[in-house]
UniProtKB/TrEMBL annotation:
<dbReference type="GO" id="GO:0008654">
    <property type="term" value="P:phospholipid biosynthetic process"/>
</dbReference>
<feature type="binding site">
    <location>
        <position position="294"/>
    </location>
    <ligand>
        <name>NADPH</name>
    </ligand>
</feature>
<keyword id="KW-1133">Transmembrane helix</keyword>
<feature type="binding site">
    <location>
        <position position="270"/>
    </location>
    <ligand>
        <name>NAD(+)</name>
    </ligand>
</feature>
<keyword id="KW-0547">Nucleotide-binding</keyword>
<keyword id="KW-0521">NADP</keyword>
<feature type="active site" description="Proton acceptor">
    <location>
        <position position="206"/>
    </location>
</feature>
<feature type="binding site">
    <location>
        <position position="150"/>
    </location>
    <ligand>
        <name>NAD(+)</name>
    </ligand>
</feature>
<dbReference type="InterPro" id="IPR036291">
    <property type="entry name" value="NAD(P)-bd_dom_sf"/>
</dbReference>
<feature type="binding site">
    <location>
        <position position="118"/>
    </location>
    <ligand>
        <name>substrate</name>
    </ligand>
</feature>
<feature type="domain" description="Glycerol-3-phosphate dehydrogenase NAD-dependent C-terminal">
    <location>
        <begin position="195"/>
        <end position="325"/>
    </location>
</feature>
<keyword id="KW-0963">Cytoplasm</keyword>
<keyword id="KW-0812">Transmembrane</keyword>
<comment type="pathway">
    <text>Membrane lipid metabolism; glycerophospholipid metabolism.</text>
</comment>
<comment type="function">
    <text>Catalyzes the reduction of the glycolytic intermediate dihydroxyacetone phosphate (DHAP) to sn-glycerol 3-phosphate (G3P), the key precursor for phospholipid synthesis.</text>
</comment>
<feature type="binding site">
    <location>
        <position position="259"/>
    </location>
    <ligand>
        <name>sn-glycerol 3-phosphate</name>
    </ligand>
</feature>
<feature type="domain" description="Glycerol-3-phosphate dehydrogenase NAD-dependent N-terminal">
    <location>
        <begin position="17"/>
        <end position="166"/>
    </location>
</feature>
């Protein structure tokens, strides 16, 4: 049984949490909040989820877990938000704007939201925090990210996350600090950050890199290839984050390296598994209404965002090309034979030596 971590100087925890989106992540976070002693209402969009919960307290998005009666589940958004003092937005990235807009019309002023989706909006190239700022003007917001397979959180396996919110020192009124104490237990440990952009870019881009690692796995390219993709993937997401105003060291934290390593190393990851299927020469389907594969949905928007900023992201570009139908072997050859360059981030744009095996340099 988990116990709540608190002390006399703790920021005030939020008491009643509305979780908007009963996919795997919303379901897992509902259990985490309940274990931390909070009242929880989970909003489900699908009739099939509501029927399944009514029948035997299970959720098709989270196999093998029985929801305790204390997690209230409803299909009525107004009911879910009534009396909430904190709202978690757990819908996938491309639906966040619409859900945030619906919530805004129903939610009391000043109630903060926590963004739990990882991605970049396809139509606008905006980060999730920017989407929410547009859909919920002036509303306090935080981002929760990090290495978190929902199924492990649901089973109460030890997990650490990053909670980021803007605003200087983490005093007791800081939103990140309040969200952290709301969720902290002996099995779920939040860390605080104020670099919202860095945290968001880590979560959005690692999904694309995980597809590349899955492809390498499916192609049996070996462990060296995977370590290279993770390391050079980190260089890519750090470059993009810094260009957007983030701090490079944020990307060495849980929401950067932590999530990148997790997602790039495990078939539990939907992004990694999707890439593996591609690498094996299969044609995996992205089912409307099925489990979300954010990297496949977001590769093009990450590449477009990087392009607008003039940031070189060869691995993300390679994944985007493969998703558009380019030959895997040609794309891999392109990655291996691009110009030779220094490794440290700070110097890598300064020198580019033509690769002897490439006719394009
Ligand atoms: N599953 C995880 O392990 C995990 C962990 C951390 C973060 N996340 C992130 O959380 C977000 C949600 O992922 P998930 O794993 O809970 O999803 P999921 O694949 O388990 O479920 C799909 C979700 O999409 C929702 N959905 C489908 N169509 C919709 C629409 N038109 N409008 C609104 N909602 C719609 C469904 O209701 C459901 O909540 C993603 O951005 C994901 O990257 C997931
Ligand atoms: O299963 P994935 O690939 O969507 O990854 C889930 C989480 O983002 C891991 O932190």
């Amino acid at each position: 049984m988990s116990t709540r971590a608190s002390d006399d100087h703790s920021p005030a925890a939020f008491g009643r949490i509305a979780i908007i989106g009963a996919g795997a992540w919303g379901t897992a976070l509902a259990l985490a909040a309940l274990r931390a002693g909070r009242q929880v209402v989970l909003w489900a969009r699908e009739a099939a989820v509501l029927e399944s919960v009514a029948r035997d307290r299970t959720n098709p998005f989270m196999a093998g877990i029985t929801l305790p009666p204390a997690v209230a589940v409803t299909g009525a958004l107004e009911q879910a938000l009534a009396g909430a003092d904190l709202v978690l937005l757990t819908t996938p990235s491309q639906h966040l704007r619409a859900m945030a807009g619906q919530c805004e019309g129903l939610l009391a002023p000043g109630v903060p939201v926590v963004i739990c989706a990882k991605g970049v909006e396809a139509e606008t190239g905006l980060l999730m925090s920017e989407v929410v700022a547009a859909a919920m003007p002036g509303r306090p917001q935080a981002v929760l990210s990090g290495p978190t397979f929902a199924a492990e959180v649901a089973r109460d396996l030890p997990t650490a996350v990053t909670v980021a919110a803007a605003g200087g020192t983490f005093d007791s009124s800081h939103l990140a600090a309040r969200v952290a104490v709301t969720f902290a237990t002996t099995r779920f440990r939040p860390y605080l950050a104020d670099d919202v952009i860095g945290v968001e870019i880590g979560g959005a881009v690692k999904n694309v890199i995980a597809i590349a690692c899955g492809i390498a796995q499916g192609r049996a390219l070996g462990s060296n290839a995977r370590a290279t993709l993770i390391t050079r993937g980190l260089a890519e997401l750090t470059r993009l984050a810094v260009a957007l105003g983030a701090r490079a060291d944020t990307l060495s934290g849980l929401a950067g390296v932590g999530d990148l390593v997790l997602t790039c190393s495990s078939e539990q990851s939907r992004n990694f598994s999707y890439g593996k299927a591609l690498g094996e020469g299969r044609n995996p389907r992205l089912d409307e209404g099925g489990p979300v594969v954010e990297g496949a949905v977001n590769a093009a928007s990450v590449v477009a965002l990087a392009g607008r900023l003039g940031i070189d992201m060869p691995i993300c570009e390679a994944v985007d090309s493969v998703l558009r139908g380019a030959s895997l072997d040609r794309v891999m050859m392109g990655l291996m034979t691009s110009g030779l360059r220094p490794e440290p981030l700070a110097a890598e744009d300064q020198v580019r030596i033509p690769h002897p095996a490439s006719r394009e340099d």
